[in-house]
Each structure stands twice: as structure tokens, then as C-alpha cells.
Amino acid sequence: MKLYLQDGTVIEGENFGASIPAGKQVHGEVVFNTGMVGYPEGLTDPSYAGQIVVLTYPLIGNYGVPDPKTLESEKIQIAGLVVSEYCEQYSHAGAKMSLAKWLKDSGVPAISGVDTRALTKKLREHGVMLGALGAEKQKKFFDPNEENLVAAVSPKKKKMYGPTSLKLRRASNGPIKIVAIDCGMKENIVRSLARKETTVIRVPWDYDFTRDDYDALFISNGPGDPTQCVKTIEHIRDAMKKNKPILGICLGNQLLALAAGAKTYKLPYGHRSQNQPCVEEKTKRCYITSQNHGYAVDEKTLPAGWEEWFTNANDGSNEGIRHKNKPWRSVQFHPEATPGPTDTAWIFDDFLKTLKAV
């Protein structure tokens, strides 16, 4: 199997995932992740929809895959996987299957034997590129960001989680009602919001909650270009008019900014790892964060009354915004981790404390 890049580069490798039928290709945006561990959680992150992921860590698959039901979504979300070396013999007490079997069962192709260091350097120099996996050369490449990827990964029905949701059983009798817009929400976000005092109402990306009874709004992570989520942005603006407390994560940071009147832009190669340093602007404290995004908020376009909350210590890009007077805030990174450090899990606690005071 070969990986074809938009610039004409052809990279050959050995397929250890699902087979691609003759004459067919799997298309996606080729991106890289520098995390050392966490591939089961990462591959099930809906923010990766439409992407062919290059893992820079040289050995992948050595600890297998745990029960897929315990991961971040119901299935593998990536379009394809590229690694340097695949470990066929896995060893971990919690492993239920090999990475190869999981990929094959999920219909996701993967190639090994690739110089991922050289490929990553190419992507860093030229930016992310469109690519295709297959046996035959591809002349036309398809950009997944031209589609509404959020609509593809968002659920179709509303779900509710209450005090018993620490075990993720359905319930709806917590006193604080939080509408959570699922644009591709990771499961650990639900676990982080589900407390004895909350009812989490998980809704599709385009669900009109403007007439619903709720106390606060949460905007989740998700894939693709945030400007595609026109209906979501409209509904967020309604919540702002009603002065509802708001917390956003990842794509939620970008959607909140767009609802406020700011602009977003595409990063050259994005941030995808579990070791991104982010500085809180007022305290100048640096936190190590987990990230997976290709777009960012243009901080120069933030309207009056808004301020940067966090910035990326590597490239200075925005990592969070908040309003100076209103109960609206968001971060570009993932405080829920999975995978990654839990240094910023306090953001959920602070948000919930705010709701108790309202």
C-alpha cells in the first residue's frame, strides 16, 4: 500500500489495517501527532474525522487495545493511520485485542515501515497536505474540511445524564441543567461534567435548544472548519443574549469566538499531541495540555470585552478566551485529557462552581 501526497510524494509501506479494494483510495488530510502513548483514545477522538494520522512515536501497538466501549467514541474516527513500526505482539493486562485487528474490524487502513520523521518534517515545513492511501496513484485529492465534518460525527438524538452518570447510566434529576452541544464530543467530557449536582443534556450540533429550560451551555470539541457550523453559532448567540454561562473546549473555543464576532484561521500544521505548553495570561503559569486541532482563534479580532485566557508557549497562538464581565469562557486544549495530562481538569471544577453561584 502507498501513501500519495498532494505535492506528488509517494510513500510505500506495509498494510496492517483494513484492505482497500482495487481501484479505490481512502482520502484525508495528512496530519501528525507527537504523543508517545494514548493511540486508542486518540484514534477514537471525533476531532480526527477526515484525517490520515501520522504517529511520530517509533513503536505503535505494543500495548494493544482495551475494551473499545471504554474509549472516547463508539468507533475509530480517523480515515487512515501511518506508523514507523507496528508491534505485532502486544502485552498489557487490560488489552482485549491487537491494534491491527481493531483497525481491520473497523475498516480503517494503516501502513507501517514509513520514515515518519521525514514525513513529519515535510508536513512541518509545508503544512498539512491532502493525501490518499491505496495501491494506485491518485490524481485528484479531496479536502475533508470543505464538508461539514461535525454533522457527520454528531449524534442524531438527544441524551441525558444525571447523578448516576458517573457510571454513564441515563438519568435526569441533577439540579443544574447543562446543555452540551455534541460537535464530536469525547466521552471523558461527559464523565467530567456528570456530577451529583448536574444533569447533562447532550444534543446534536444543530439542535435548537433556545426554548429549552437549562442553566448553562457547554460546547464540545469536533472536527473540521468551525465556520461550517452555522446553526451552532446561531444558537450560541441566543444563549449569550440570555446571559447563560458558557464553557467551550477545542472546536468549542472557535465556535464561541465566532459567535462573539471574532474570526478563525487554519494553522499551518495544527497541534496534535499530549505535551503542548499553554500559558495562562494573568498568572503566567504554564500548563502541559492535550490537544487535537487544526484551526485557531484570531485573537486580534476579539471584540471589546473579551480577552485571551491562554496562549500556546510554542507559537503564541490562542489557547483560550473569556469575557471580562460575562460568564463566558473556552479553551482550545483538552482539560479532560484521555490521552494526556490532567493538569487543567480544574477548568471543569471552576465552571461548575460558577453555576452553583448563579
From TrEMBL:
Residues the record marks as active site: 250 (nucleophile), 334, 336
Annotated metabolic or biological route of this protein: Pyrimidine metabolism; UMP biosynthesis via de novo pathway; (S)-dihydroorotate from bicarbonate: step 1/3; Amino-acid biosynthesis; L-arginine biosynthesis; carbamoyl phosphate from bicarbonate: step 1/1
Domain called Carbamoyl-phosphate synthase small subunit N-terminal: residue spans: 1-134
Domain of life: Bacteria
KW Nucleotide-binding (keyword) present: yes
BP GO annotations: 'de novo' pyrimidine nucleobase biosynthetic process; 'de novo' UMP biosynthetic process; glutamine metabolic process; L-arginine biosynthetic process
Entry EC no(s): 6.3.5.5
Residues engaged in binding L-glutamine: 47, 222, 224, 251, 254, 292, 294-295
Pfam family, one: CPSase_sm_chain
InterPro entries the UniProt entry points to: Anth_synth/Amidotransfase, CarbamoylP_synth_ssu, CarbamoylP_synth_ssu_N, CarbP_synth_ssu_N_sf, Class_I_gatase-like, CPSase_GATase1, GATASE
CDD domains: GATase1_CPSase
CPSase, as annotated region: 1-175
GO function terms (MF aspect): ATP binding; carbamoyl-phosphate synthase (glutamine-hydrolyzing) activity; glutaminase activity
Role summary: Small subunit of the glutamine-dependent carbamoyl phosphate synthetase (CPSase). CPSase catalyzes the formation of carbamoyl phosphate from the ammonia moiety of glutamine, carbonate, and phosphate donated by ATP, constituting the first step of 2 biosynthetic pathways, one leading to arginine and/or urea and the other to pyrimidine nucleotides. The small subunit (glutamine amidotransferase) binds and cleaves glutamine to supply the large subunit with the substrate ammonia.
Similarity-based family: Belongs to the CarA family.
Subunit structure: Composed of two chains; the small (or glutamine) chain promotes the hydrolysis of glutamine to ammonia, which is used by the large (or ammonia) chain to synthesize carbamoyl phosphate. Tetramer of heterodimers (alpha,beta)4.
Name used for this protein in its record: Carbamoyl phosphate synthase small chain
Species per Swiss-Prot/TrEMBL record: Candidatus Kaiserbacteria bacterium RIFCSPHIGHO2_01_FULL_54_36b
